[in-house]
Design brief:
- By secondary structure, the protein is mainly β.
- It has two domains: 170 residues, Immunoglobulin-like (Sandwich), CATH 2.60.40; 99 residues, Immunoglobulin-like.
- It contains two helices and 19 strands.
- The strands form five sheets. Strands 1-3-9-6 form a four-stranded antiparallel sheet, with helices on one face. The protein has a four-stranded mixed sheet with strand order 2-11-10-5.
- Strand 10 and strand 11 form a beta hairpin.
- The chain is globular.
Amino acid sequence: MLSPINLIVQEVPVISARLLIVLFLFSSLLNAANKAMVSVEVTPLTQSVSPGETFDIAVIFSMEPDWHIYWQNPGEAGMPTSFEWNLPENFQLTRQREPTPTRHVDQGITTFIHEDEAIYLFTIQAPDYVADSNSFTVDINWLECKDLCQPGSSKHLFVLERDESPGPEKADWNRLVERAELKFPQPFTGAMDQLVRRGDHIELAMKRYPWSKKLLGANFFPFDEMIYDSGKPVQIERGLLRNRIIIPLQIDLNITPEVLHGVLVQHSASPGGPITTNSIIHQQLP
C-alpha cells in the first residue's frame, strides 16, 4: 500500500512558517541556471501486459553532483516529489516504493533529500480484460536544489501491448531492481521492548546484542509532517540490556502522535564490518 502523509492543516501558524521557507528557496530562481540539474527516466519492467498480472515501472532520477530532490516528507523546507499517473481503464496503482532519504542541514534548515540517484518502483495491477494496446502517462514534478533551487517537471508516455503470456525478464531489469532494493526500507523485524512518549520525545527501546553488533547511530524519517522536530537529531542511549532511540517531538504544537510511522535508520558495527538497516516502523503508541 502507498505510504500516507498526513498534513496537519489546522496548524496555520506552523504551515505559514514553512511556506515562508519554501518561498525563500524559490526566491533563488531569479539566479537559477536554465539547464536542468536532474534528469528522469521512466522504464516499464515488462515488454507487454498479461491479463490479471502485476508489473513494475521504474522511475529513475539522476542528479548532477551536489544537487538533490526531496523525499515524500521534505522536512523543514522543500517540496515533495509528486507523480500523477494516467492509467488505462481498470488498471490500478497498488504500490509505490521510494528510497530511504538522507538528512541534509543547510543554514540551520533540516531537509530530507535524495542525492546522486533515486530509483522509485511503482507496481501496477492489470485487470482481467486487457486491450490490445495500452497507453500510460505520468506527470512528474520536483524541486531541485543546490545553492539555489529551481522547479523541474517532465511528462512521460509509453505503450504496452497485450500478451496472454508474460515475456521473459531481462537481466538489466533485474539488476535495476536489485540496485533499487538496496535503498528501499524494509518492514521492521527487530525486537522492540518498549515504545512510549516521555515529555518532548518518543523513546523506542530495543534489545541489545553486544556480541553481534553495536549501535553507533540512528535516524528517523517520519511520514507525518509537523509532528516530529526534524531540526533536532535522533539520539541513542546504550544500556546493558537494551538500546534506547530518542526521537524528538514538536512540543510547541501540543500534538501527540497516535502511531510511530516512518523510516528508522540504524548504523551498527559488527565483526564483519559496518551495517546499515532501513526499517519501516508502524507502531501504535500506548
